[in-house]
Amino acid sequence: MSNMDISTGHMVLSYMEDHLRNKDRLEQEWVALCAYEAEPCASNIALKTDHDPRNPAYIATQGPLASTAADFWQLVWEQGSVVIVMLTRLTENGQALCHRYWPEEGSELYHIYEVHLVSEHIWCDDYLVRSFYLKNVRTGETRTVTQFHFLSWPESGIPASTKALLEFRRDGVGRTGTYCLIDMVLNRMSKGAKEIDIAATLEHIRDQRPNMVRTKSQFEFVLMSVAEEVHAILKALPQ
């Protein structure tokens, strides 16, 4: 594989099983939100970040409820997030998975944050892209936020293909962890890393949030996605 070595191995799968049984011993870190002046009790929501300064930071969060949609936008604002990756449908098999935390058209106010839907583009059957203007009505400051909404990842399973995918899902761990692991590895590849230890990367994110990459099939999907990208890179090299 040229000068790039990707370490995996059976130890990773047994490591995953061990961590599923021992999640209680993992340390928890949370992103604290500034308390609303009008709602002093709404000061914290269960979120997790990757603090590795060498790579992009991720915030893995549960899909908002109707009662926490304002907290979600407060999180986006306070953390300076400009991209939302949503890996769940709003409903699946008649079951509600996530509250629609954006307006279907026009603008909607979530406490002090006004969200305006600028555009919605369906790229393919698998995903669509939305653009929002996010405004803090107290300060008048506005920002642009882009949402990538993946539609074909089932609640308990993996996508049918890696093509459409190449810190967000119902409970903020399984699918979110799978996405984050793929993105972290591909990001390091794009920066010219000579050696990538997928097992160590998985350990890094699971030390911060339990159950990130929940099943063997999800981990195998990570390997499949990375292998496909490596194949594309090698194919593009001059012969």
List keywords for this structure.
single chain, 239 residues, alpha/beta, Protein-Tyrosine Phosphatase, Chain A, 5-stranded mixed beta sheet, 3-stranded mixed beta sheet, 5 helices, Prot-tyrosine_phosphatase-like, Receptor-type tyrosine-protein phosphatase N2, receptor
Question: If you had to describe this structure to a student in words, what would you say it looks like?
Answer:
The chain is of the alpha/beta class. The protein has a single domain (5-236), classed as Protein-Tyrosine Phosphatase, Chain A (Alpha-Beta Complex), CATH 3.90.190.10. Helices cover 30% and strands 23% of the residues. It has helices spanning 10-21, 69-78, 174-190, 198-208, 216-236; strands spanning 5-7, 47-49, 59-62, 83-86, 91-92, 95-96, 107-110, 113-122, 127-136, 142-150, 168-169, 195-197. A five-stranded mixed β-sheet has the order 4-10-9-8-7. It has a three-stranded mixed β-sheet with strand order 2-3-11, covered by helices on one side. Strands 1-12 form a two-stranded parallel ribbon. β9 and β10 (142-150) form a beta hairpin. α3 (174-190) crosses α4 and α3 (174-190) runs parallel beside α5 (216-236). One of its GO terms (molecular function) is protein tyrosine phosphatase activity. It comes from Armadillidium nasatum. This is Receptor-type tyrosine-protein phosphatase N2. Residues 172-220 form the Tyrosine specific protein phosphatases domain.
